[in-house]
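Note to self: the last two entries modelled the partners one at a time, which told us nothing about the interface. This time every component goes in together.
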Amino acid sequence: MVVEASGIPNFEGGKVVLSTGDVQVLRVELSSTHIDVDVEDKKFIKSIIAVREDLTPKLSETDEAANSGCENPPQIGSIFSTARSVAETLRKRGITITLSYKGKRMATIGAEANPILLHRTTKTRGIAINSILTAISMVI
Amino acid sequence: MAAQNLLQDALSKYNQETIVSIIDRIAGDKDNLRVDLQHVKFTLRGIKFEINGNFNFNIKHKPARCSQGGT
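The predicted structure of the combined assembly is written out below.
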């Protein structure tokens, strides 16, 4: 089935700003083809990731016991694979997501990503790192 | 009014406890979370919406439990 470059279905655009303690921590600008995420507070993003982990269904003790024998930590390959499939879907739909930290663009995913070398590793032209230094400064 | 009911119906599908938990965790150690929506335009079941405004959540964190040492 061929997916047309249709942008985000049923969505025209807008802007969403999140603030905690009266300080802006995240800005999201949306249009039918672009999602621009600008992170102002890295602590906030880390708490979002923690929320996601908390909401993931936990294994029961019996399941944990059953799985303790097999070593199955999260594979870096599966993370790449998920990122690649998301990026390819975005490209087919003509959607671009940009991630910025304090106004500096870190990464572009989707239609307008223009990787220089990264596509050799990721096997997709849908993921580009625009500033590795900005990405590192957000993670640390 | 039909549009308001439609939006309310769509929102009611989400688990309220999960939403409260997410809001609480997103706020972190701060006591408020504000979400500003500016000209957010979308179509739901054929009806066009434009949302302008903000949600301001005042978070009352649960006090940490004290361990009760007994003799």
